[in-house]
């Protein structure tokens, strides 16, 4: 695939349609889902001493839910998405920080009693 083709495909893949979903309405309530989308592309060309040339590239896109805009009775509100993976990671980091600091706290308490 040529570098220009890769960049063109990447440009087409990272659009506002990837960020905001199609709004849907039910019983006077409109919901517009939103996501966090990121991506990148890269490419290059080159040649060697034998006169051979080549080029190539690639791109990637990732996304995760961010939340939704809720429209009801002319009022707009933002409802963030809950990411259970992020909650588990943060809880794990808190437990690790506690376990690593526990010996120092015990040593500091022992020294303060003397």
Rough shape? flat
Strand order of the largest sheet: 1-2-3-4
Q: In total, how many domains does the architecture comprise?
A: 2
Share of residues in strands? 35-45%
Report the order of strands and helices: HHEEEEH
Low-confidence stretches are none
- The end-to-end span amounts to 73 Å
Determine the structural class based on helices, strands and strand pairing.
alpha+beta
What's the count of strands? 4
Mean pLDDT over the full residue set = 83
Tell me the quaternary state.
Answer: single chain
Radius of gyration: 25 Å
Q: How much helix is in the residues?
A: 25-40%
Tally of individual helices: 3
Main pleated sheet: 4 strands, antiparallel
Protein name: Sporulation protein
Organism: Nocardioides jiangsuensis
Region (Disordered): 42-61
Structure, briefly:
This is Sporulation protein. By secondary structure, this protein is of the alpha+beta class.
């Amino acid at each position: 695939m040529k570098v220009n083709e890769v960049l063109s495909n990447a440009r087409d893949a990272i659009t506002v349609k990837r960020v905001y979903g199609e709004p849907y309405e039910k019983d006077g309530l409109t919901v517009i889902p939103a996501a966090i989308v990121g991506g990148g592309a890269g490419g290059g060309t080159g040649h060697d001493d034998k006169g051979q040339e080549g080029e190539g590239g690639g791109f990637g896109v990732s996304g995760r839910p961010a939340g939704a805009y809720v429209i009801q009775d002319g009022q707009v509100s933002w409802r963030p998405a809950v990411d259970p993976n992020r909650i588990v990671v943060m809880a794990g980091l808190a437990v690790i920080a506690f376990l690593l600091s526990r010996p120092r706290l015990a040593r500091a308490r022992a020294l303060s009693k003397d």
